[in-house]
Fold:
Amino acid sequence: NKTCTEAMFIIDGEYTMDLGGEILKLKAHDVVYVTPGTPYSMEGKGTSFVFIEPKWDSAQNVATE
Structure:
């Protein structure tokens, strides 16, 4: 993501996140903040709430290697 700032609140479940090369274990009530240009990926199962600023646009969703 090159444009948006994202904040994720984990409601329940467990996730593993690679945030710019740092591996994070996320669980209920954790919050993670992702600045524009920071590569990340997430795996896991649960419920999360994601705040995105500015408004997300599908044209921004570009897969990177």
